[in-house]
Amino acid sequence: QLQLQESGPGLVKPSETLSLTCTVSGGSITSSGYYWGWIRQPPGKGLEWIGSIYYSGSTYYNPSLKSRVTISVDTSKRQFSLKLSSVTAADTAVYYCARLESGSYGGGAFDIWGQGTTVTVSS
Amino acid sequence: DIVMTQTPLSSPVTLGQPASISCRSSQSLVHSDGNTYLSWLQQRPGQPPRLLIYKISNRYSGVPDRFSGSGAGTDFTLKISRVEAEDVGVYYCMQATQYPYTFGQGTKLEIK
Q: Do A104 and B39 touch (CB under 8 A)?
């Protein structure tokens, strides 16, 4: 079955760029109707949607982070990536990648999640 | 942005008893395609979120039938008919009708 796995540095210095990759296994990243997203969760807090990408490269970002976020996809590697620039301590969180099946094809919900990776912003 | 408000934020429940969580959106979640993209997720301690319910009332694959969802427009409810020990965790509602996608604050389900 399809699985997602986040990878990347667990520690990032303030003002630098956070870079994470999500690898898709057991299924295709180019299947029609599926969007690939990033969601984060600060320690002890709730979930925040960062943004999503379609395999064609179309991106959708949370306006609260849009100026600092870039999400890209590499279909040949079955990966999609997150870059968050100019990070501060407020960006410390568990970062999840997840799949959303569009409403046209299915439930319009994040149905498959990675295990999450903890990123700490600290000098 | 659509604001999702959950009540209660904490819910102590006796094993075997029902539980109910409410989620209210700041505007209608009915999409232009006629669907309502309201989902419920469960997050057990130390685990990633897990999809329980999508499009208000559809149980995701493998989800026990003691979980049910209902509602329309701006008011939605997740019900657990008989709480089991494995149901402990935080429950989130989420809307995917309009960008940016938004989540409720979470409701912590605890056993009394």
A: no
Share of chain B above pLDDT 90, in %: 100
Within 8 A of A104 by CB-CB distance, chain B residues are 33
Contacts of A13 (CB under 8 A, 6+ apart): A121, A122, A123
Spatial distance between the Cα atoms of B81 and B53, rounded to a whole number of angstroms: 15
Measured between alpha carbons, how far is residue B32 from residues A20, A90, B29, B37, B99 in Å? 34, 35, 9, 11, 13
User: What's the pLDDT band for A106 if we cut at 50, 70, 90?
Assistant: confident
| Among A7, A96, A2, A87, CA closest to A49 | A96
In this complex, do B51 and A111 lie within 8 Å of one another by their Cβ atoms? yes
Q: Looking at the complex, report in whole angstroms how far the Cα of residue A33 sits from the nearest Cα belonging to chain B.
A: 14
Residues in chain A with CB shorter than 8 Å from the CB of B51 are 107, 109-111
Confirm or reject contact between B6 and chain A (CB < 8 A): no
Closest CA in chain A for residue B94: A109
**Interchain pair B94, A113: CB under 8 A:** no
pLDDT in tens, B7-59: 999 999 999 999 999 999 999 999 999 999 999 999 999 999 999 999 999 99
The number of beta carbons lying within 10 Å of the beta carbon of residue A14 is 12
- Of the CA atoms within 13 Å of residue A97, those in its CB half-sphere come to 27
